[in-house]
Amino acid sequence: MTITVLDTYPAIREILQAPASERPELLRAMLQPAAGMYKYFPGEVDLVAMHGMGSGFPLDRDGERCLEALEALHDAKAWTRIQGALEEGVSAQLAATPGITVPDITVLLVLGDPGDEHFMGPALGMAANGSVTGYLYLNVWPYPENLARLEATAVHELNHNLRYAPGGVVWNPATVTVGEQVVSEGLADAFARQLYGDELGYSRLAVAHLHDDEVYRKVLSGLEVTGMQNFTAWVHGDEFAARYGATPVGLPAGAGYVAGNRLVDAYLAATGKTAAEALHVPSREVIDVAGQRA
């Protein structure tokens, strides 16, 4: 098992300082080692277009602001810290579940887009994905809160990667429910909290409404919803749904993270398991046990 955190710092710096006409191809070359994260997409994927759609740093504006932010990431030793956190996370997970398969993992860290109001506002300057086996994607704007959470964010995404790796939980697009994603977010946060404590381990999206019972009950009412096009509203909230063309359901940002943390905490309390030990527990079991405890 090898963890490769791509050293994107010099590449991003070169892109931001290059003539505008050269930037797309330089970006494409930087992204190519992580192209496998789109392996389930139909047809050929335009990596540069996907970068833009994912709120990655712009190629045609905000150059100086992005260079300053890039240096903030570099000064924070972001790449080294993420590498160390993932190695620590894998060790902790294997100690709890020694029989699992840990794939080789490629990590792409990019700088976000300061001109994207949704990314900088409701998304809190962070977009990450660990759902595709063997790849982690972290898009960060160096808000102080995000820099402080780099390790926790990395192991959160690692938890997703290992949950859905071969031999683990199968994500079937035809049958998967909101409940599975909600529980997976709660498990990933619980794993981050196991390693880094509550102050840093909670996803920032979870914090504002963590103790809001109305939000919690509303999400519980949607746990059986299927159709992945519906998940954004239930998990990330209405502002995210509106951004991506989904139908709002009356939930604030991070609602699914709130419910996931509360469900998982109830399950762990009832069973005495650690988050690492619960890596492959079916979401149905978590929901049922947590429901009995509530």
UniProtKB/TrEMBL annotation:
Residues 102-287 form the DUF2268 domain. InterPro entries: DUF2268. GO terms for biological process: proteolysis. This is DUF2268 domain-containing putative Zn-dependent protease. It holds the Pfam family DUF2268. The keyword Hydrolase applies. GO terms for molecular function: peptidase activity. Keywords: Hydrolase, Protease.
